[in-house]
Amino acid sequence: MISSIIFYDYEWQNIYLFLCGPLSLFILIYSIFEKNNKKKYFLFFLSAILTILFILTAKKTAKIQFSYYKNKLFLLEEIEKQIPIIIQKEKKPAILYFYADWCHSCKDLEERLTRKEIGELIQNGWIIIKIDVTNYDKYKDYLLENYGVYGIPALSFYDKEGKLIKPFTMIGAEIPLKTLISILRQFGVFERPI
Fold this sequence. Notes:
Helices cover 48% and strands 15% of the residues. With 194 residues, the protein is α/β, with parallel strands linked by helices. It folds into two domains: 5-60; 69-187, Glutaredoxin. The strands form two sheets. Strands 4-6-5-7-8 form a five-stranded mixed β-sheet. Strands 1-2-3 form a three-stranded antiparallel β-sheet. Helix 1 packs antiparallel against helix 2 and helix 6 (116-125) packs parallel to helix 8 (177-187). The two termini are 14 Å apart. The mean pLDDT is 90.
């Protein structure tokens, strides 16, 4: 569920369970400066309970590893004309993932794409093609004009007919997950309904 909180590869089901951690730390620090021993011990005990709740409700985030098309990194000029042919052959829509070696945000985006609910949708209903735009200056005008991409990382979507869905192009690592899931569900081709 997207309403969960993810922090350093751990997930809490809601904001209240996540906030037990910072709150317990705040109460612990406050209890150190408390003069009244009874109150001090109560605050220390409360902090311990909140810490235990924080730790016990944290779960390691589920990840789905999917493979890129042909497990390869393509240059834009070598794959662009083939995209409609690939879509027709695979009978699935495509995601173009614009990537660069020097892009630190690309790693963050890849991390988000492997989250269970997103990774499963990509794995089951999409072809994902990783495109190397490390030499971004060479491609930036072309990407902006043809894909609406003005920075990287970026995701562009092709529907199952091989047409670019330009209004849904997503830029950056902090893409809205609910919107991404909606696009993946709306345009994806799945063997059984989700």
